[in-house]
Design goal:
It comes from Calidris pygmaea. Its main location: nucleus. Residues 125-143 form the U2A'/phosphoprotein 32 family A C-terminal domain. The chain has helices spanning 3-13, 78-83, 100-103, 128-135, 166-169; strands at 18-20, 43-45, 65-67, 89-91, 114-116, 141-142. With 174 residues, it is of the alpha/beta class. The protein has a single domain, classed as Leucine-rich repeat, LRR (right-handed beta-alpha superhelix), CATH 3.80.10.10. The protein has a six-stranded parallel beta sheet, covered by helices on one side. It starts with a helix and ends in a 5-residue tail after the last helix.
Length: 174
């Protein structure tokens, strides 16, 4: 299903503060149909949709978590500070990010606490983790680990992505 068709259906139903568009087809590598009408979004997921750019993102002031993994994004991240100034979690794993200069614009995301670049070429650079933490001092977690290599907790303490772990809690049938 294409982005715009799925978005029209979601708007009709006025579904909450989460929007998952995983595996939808993007149009020419861009986000199409996502408009200012989605200004209440706190979580947006566009995993594996063929994105090459986030330039068409509308202003999403309340967006806290953005999942962009498994796309073809190689730059243009400066738009995120302008369009999504309150991001706390950003997942760019599996994209075409090759150097630290590409992620440098993320410095402007003052609330960014967690960044995932797993399976991006940039992770192969010497002293990658040390340099990213230096470049983005606001980060607490990089690729799921803090500066001291302690794993990030699985639970979402802030609660803005409610219900994602419900199945895990019920694994033993209780």
């Amino acid at each position: 299903m294409e982005f715009s068709l799925r978005l029209q259906r979601l708007l009709k139903n006025k579904q909450g503060m989460e929007l998952v568009l995983d595996n939808c087809r993007s149009y020419e590598g861009k986000i199409e149909g996502l408009t200012d009408e989605f200004e209440e979004l706190e979580f947006l997921s566009t995993i594996n949709v063929g994105l090459t750019s986030v330039a068409n993102l509308p202003k999403l002031n309340k967006l806290k978590k953005l999942e962009l993994s498994d796309n073809r994004i190689s730059g243009g991240l400066e738009v995120l500070a302008e369009k999504c100034p309150n991001l706390t979690h950003l997942n760019l794993s599996g994209n075409k990010i090759k150097d630290l200069g590409t992620i440098e614009p993320l410095k402007k995301l003052e609330n960014l606490k967690s960044l995932d670049l797993f399976n991006c070429e940039v992770t192969n650079l010497n002293d990658y983790r040390e340099n990213v933490f230096k470049l983005l001092p606001q980060l607490t977690y990089l690729d799921g680990y803090d500066r001291d290599d302690k794993e990030a907790p699985d639970s979402d303490a802030e609660g803005y992505v409610e219900g994602l772990d419900d199945e895990e809690e019920d694994e033993d049938g209780m």
